[in-house]
Amino acid sequence: MEVRVQSVKFDADHKLVDFATKKVKKLDRFFDGIIAAEVTMSLTPDHDNKKIAVRLEIPGYDLRTEKQCRTFEEAVRQCVDVLKIQLKKAKEKMRGQ
Q1: Domains in the chain, number
Q2: Residue 17 belongs to domain with CATH number
Q3: pLDDT tens across 6-21, in order?
Q4: Which of 8, 58, 63, 90 could pair with 42 as two cysteines, CB 3.0-4.6 Å apart?
């Protein structure tokens, strides 16, 4: 799976990019048909100002989730948790067809 990480209006630290890539690559365990993943990091003016959007390309359609937290790391973890559930549902749906 190819993972693209993009930071909007700021330069992401190398450690942060590696962390996000590592966490998203673990999703391969739940669904081996993931084609690519795109992680977009941005800052918002809110109190919880770190925002992560993750889009997974799988055969047939895309899965997408966004989370906003105090840290990018926490937002990545929450996105990955949501995507695990979505991938399990997509896998069951594909088996049923």
Answers
A1: 1
A2: 3.30.160.100
A3: 999 899 999 999 999 9
A4: 8
